[in-house]
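Invent a record, attention on tokens:
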Amino acid sequence: MTARKADALLLTDANALLSGILTDKDIATRVVARELDLETTPVSAVMTRNPVFVVSDTLAVEALQKMVQGKFRHLPVVENGGVVSILDISKCLNDAIARMEKAAEKGKAIAAAVEGVEKHWGTSAAGSSTFIETLRERLFKPSLSTIISGNPMLVTVSPSDMVLVATQTMLEGHTSSAIVTVDSKPRGILTSKDILNRVIALGLRPELTLVEKVMTPNPECASIDTPIVEALHTMNKGKFLHLPVVDKDGVILAVTDVLQIIHAAVASAGSTAAIDNDAANSMMQNFWDSAMSAPPADDDSETKSEGSFKIASENGTEIGKAVYPSPSLPYTFNFKIQDRKGRMHRFMCETHSLADLITAILQRVGGEIDRNNLPQILYEDEDKDMVMLATDSDLIAAVEHARSAGWKGLKLQLDYSGMPRNRKGSSGGGLEHVHADTWASAYSSVAAGAALVAGLGVLAFLRRAGN
């Protein structure tokens, strides 16, 4: 991991199936803090088993949303049945922001975003201008104080503490970092990545190594009034994952990490998205396409998502190309849906939430869906009957039936003929209400991602413009 500058490692079992993931936090809190023997402890004893994954054609925004919603930083990627790489939320976001800034230099990304809004409001630019201003207000106004008020996430240690003590304190605090303080003011930061690279990889003994010898000194800090999106940009620019928060006197108040900040930014964007979900979705598609069409920023291995390690099996073959059957992860299933141009969209989705399935559909064919006449989601069973998916339980039952029948996936159709009035177990009106709420939740999820992406682009544009 140290040699590849990676902070996560994918593990496979004897059958070449993805079985777990091991991160620097696991090593710090599950191995070092518990004083396990590094030489004799197998990774299976401390790894996270059966991680969630995405397929190689998953939309970048969808992968980002999945990591935010699941509150994890790393996401394995599967292609043609084989595990090919692992995404890191911070590196993905760093690369996306770098591309956005490059696109924003010439105004192309902002122009594409505004064009999407203008198409929704008509030829008048007033609507798009209002949306941009409201987006700026709601994304940039929320500050770090809204994050740390109820969850300080603060673990402090002394420079004279031993690394072992620091990791045990981190384990107790359920964090991956500790602020090194003198007189309640930050003098350094010790993270699980520091412990991996500066202690374990160098063969140092945690119980005999002083924190001050391996900490990162004088970390960049933010104030409680720093806007959430500004903090995210600061972390991207500095390429670090943890941000100490201090008061006006420099006294440490809290420490936040990149995942917490991204989650808060999406939450802020969610309220922004309520302005108009169609416009936000249009902005996301146009802005993201424009930004991603730009060439990547200068080649810097620290800003790009690292590929996974391909662990060799006993006979010397590489596990990375092994077959990866979906049954190893029972809570996901394959789906496909055809758009109006006849193109087939294949994707994998978790099966416990109909709103998640609708979100995945919106991210692929959302522009074709009539918001004033929301469709029903149907699939064809073995009797050639069209069966409706209207609730979470419908989705779960459909997937269980498909698995028992040996199907590889479900082909979905959108039907605009209207919601049935009568259905066993619920009234028509109640079902219509649930149906509308589920679609509204999915639109909100997509639009929140849209607003965050657009907001980061606006920030990049304003910085380039010197405003």
Summary: The chain has a mean pLDDT of 74. The first strand starts at residue 8 and ends at 12. The CA atoms of residues 12 and 447 lie 36 Å apart. The chain has 15 helices and 20 strands.
